[in-house]
Amino acid sequence: MRIYVIRHGETKSNEERIRQSRDGYLSDDGIQEARALAEKLRGINIDSIFTSSYPRAKQTAGIISALGTKHFPVQESEFLTEVRLPSEVVGRPVDDPASKKILAWIQGNTGSSFKYSDEETFNEYVSRANKVLEHISQTKFENSVVVTHHRFIHILVATVLLGQKLTPQLFSTLRDHLFISNTGITILEKNPQEGDWWRVLTLNEHSHLENLAK
Fold first, then answer.
1. How many CB atoms lie within 10 A of CB 16?
2. What b/e sequence results for 171-209 when a residue is b if at least 16 CB atoms lie within 10 Å of its CB, and e otherwise?
3. Which domains does the chain have, with CATH numbers?
4. 178-212 pLDDT tens trace
């Protein structure tokens, strides 16, 4: 059983380095990235597609479905949405000093239930990641595509790698050293013959982007 975890295609906010809200659609470049991704995935016997409910993820999943060799109804899930940041930083530039100060303060407060304002806590997004993995484990799908977001892919990978040993401190360190490209593919695999756990098979495979003009 494999999960092909996909980050959505590029958006205008990605291009402008703005911290995004739920809203926002793929840019022209993002649409081209999603089409290149769909072409790459045609060689895989995909049997299900799940997506975040955010428009940029749904667009990406829709392109994968439309251009694939089989056409599946795309299943939306709120469990796959992006890790929620405090509203004080949403819509602000990534390099905005005030936003960086808030996020650094949150990162320095390592309690798993700590809240600055209305953001999602460590416990909440880890719980979501575990629910996603558990849900797909219980299906009969062998090759599932999951379209989601940068920070949520970080927590999925960290959850697979560290399980119950994962702490806010360890996640902070791991996250700082992970980058996932728009439409990058991360493959998670579970083989019951080897053990009842997920493992990271591939991280951020993005060779399909090499020939796209920027």
1. 11
2. beebbeeeebebbbbbbbebeeeeeeebeeeebebbebb
3. 2-209 (3.40.50.1240)
4. 999 999 999 999 987 887 899 999 999 999 999 88
In angstroms, the first-to-last Cα distance of the chain is 35
Q: What pLDDT was estimated at residue 73?
A: 82
Q: What is the pLDDT of residues 43-90, one digit of tens each?
A: 999 999 999 999 999 999 999 999 987 777 899 999 999 999 999 999
Name the residue among 47, 16, 53 with its Cα closest to residue 152.
53
Average pLDDT over residues 122-144: 95
Q: What mean pLDDT comes out for the span 98-103?
A: 92
Contact 36, 208 (CB under 8 A): yes
